[in-house]
Amino acid sequence: METFTRRVAIAGQVTDAETGAGIGGALVSISGGPKPFLAWLAIRKAELASRGVPAAGMPDVAVTGADGWFHFDALPDGKYALDFGLPAAGTRYGTAKLSVKVRAGEGAVKPTDASAALPPTTVRGRVADAGGASVPMAEVRIKGSGEKTFSGVDGRYRLVGVERGARTVQVQARGAAAAEAVAQLPDPGSSATLDFTVSPG
């Protein structure tokens, strides 16, 4: 990680646990820390709230950039608890938690790494024919939404970042009858595996 010439105490990247891509707009909040810092934070947040500053503008909250990176400046030494989430995505992503320790340095400071991955609500599986051979380029979609993908050369597919719940997954392959099944996704960040066998149609 790059060494900063100013005091960046904690820095990291929030990524998609399935794809590894950075997630922009994620919220990173400090939920625990040294007692003196928490006492100062309570006073500061009350002051800012009285001015109408939203939660995302508080000193204990960072919003990731388009590449998923974030940082907190000028934190005192000690242990910190961080919470990660993407509220704007509804139930398409789960949350993550992390504990880190901050130690001050002289001059240039290398910040404490606090990277985390958010689990997307995911449906994955394989499309095969009656003989077990992979079926590539089968269209796989969530019924009633625009979410869709295509199976790869190995017949495997993955729908990442769908809403939680009982989701009907439909498969259509050239020369085959359509098939569908229900994926149970009870919680944000949960995953389900649905394999399909398609027959000539």
Keywords:
about 200 residues; Immunoglobulin-like; 4-stranded antiparallel beta sheet; 1 helix; 16 strands; elongated
Mean of pLDDT? 91
Strand content: 35-45%
- Can you summarize the main beta sheet? 4 strands, mixed
What form results from the Cα inertia axes? elongated
Full CATH superfamily name of the largest domain: Carboxypeptidase-like, regulatory domain
- CATH-level-2 architecture of the largest domain: Sandwich
Q: If you compute it from the alpha carbons, what radius of gyration comes out, rounded to the nearest whole angstrom?
A: 22 Å
Count of structural domains:
2
CATH topology of the largest domain: Immunoglobulin-like
Order of helices and strands: EEHEEEEEEEEEEEEEE
Q: How many β-strands, per DSSP?
A: 16
Structural class: mainly beta
Unreliable residue runs:
1-6
* Helical stretch tally: 1
Quick take:
The protein has 201 residues and is mostly beta strands.
How would you explain this protein's 3D organization?
- The chain is built from one helix and 16 strands.
- Residues 1-6 have low confidence and may be disordered.
- The protein has one helix at residues 35-50; strands spanning 8-16, 27-32, 61-63, 69-73, 78-85, 96-102, 112-113, 116-118, 122-129, 139-142, 148-150, 156-160, 165-172, 179-185, 191-193, 196-198.
- The radius of gyration is 22 Å and the shape is elongated.
- It is 8% helix and 42% strand.
- It has two domains: 8-118, Immunoglobulin-like; 122-198, Carboxypeptidase-like, regulatory domain (Immunoglobulin-like), CATH 2.60.40.1120.
- Strand 13 (165-172) and strand 14 form a beta hairpin.
- The chain has 201 residues and is mainly beta.
